[in-house]
Amino acid sequence: EVQLVESGGGLVQAGGSLRLSCAASGGFTFADYTIGWFHQAPGKEREGVSCIRMSDGATNSAESVNGRFTITRDNAKNTVYLQMNSLKPEDTGVYYCAADTGLFRICVLGQAEYWGQGAQVTVSS
């Protein structure tokens, strides 16, 4: 079974940066999956932020984070990163990583077979 563990969350001032990590384990073929990052702001529904196809590194990101957030992967470490720059108070919330073998399913529909436990990010104004 795939296990995803997020790390790197915390408290940062507006304009600051954080890097989230999503480490995957479970004896699966990482290259078969697409990994996505999702954001759930307080009192709101979860929404997709960015996703990356592990086989070739193809990415897709929400317009709201283009130019500020970058998703990358390290296949050797089975880890995906989300570099978040120029953070805004509205970026506050819980960030989840998720994994699915279907790129359309995870990147467009926001559905995934496996989910991490989430990492809290708080951006103060």
Oligomeric organization of the protein chains? single chain
Helix and strand composition category: mainly beta
Please summarize the sheet with the most strands.
Answer: 7 strands, mixed
C-alpha Rg (nearest Å): 13 Å
Inertia-based shape: globular
Helical content stands at under 10%
Unreliable segments of 5+ consecutive residues: none
Kindly report the average pLDDT value.
95
The total count of strands amounts to 11
**Percentage of residues in strands:** over 45%
Q: Number of helix segments?
A: 1
Describe the protein.
The chain is mainly β and about 120 residues long. It is about 5% helix and about 50% strand. It has one helix at about 105; strands spanning about 5, 10-15, 20-25, 35-40, 45-55, 60, 70-75, 80-85, 95-100, 115, 120-125. Strands 2, 4, 5, 6, 9, 10 and 11 form a seven-stranded mixed beta sheet that branches. A hairpin with a 5-residue loop joins strand 5 and strand 6 (about 60). The protein is globular, with a radius of gyration of 13 Å. It starts with a strand and ends with a strand.
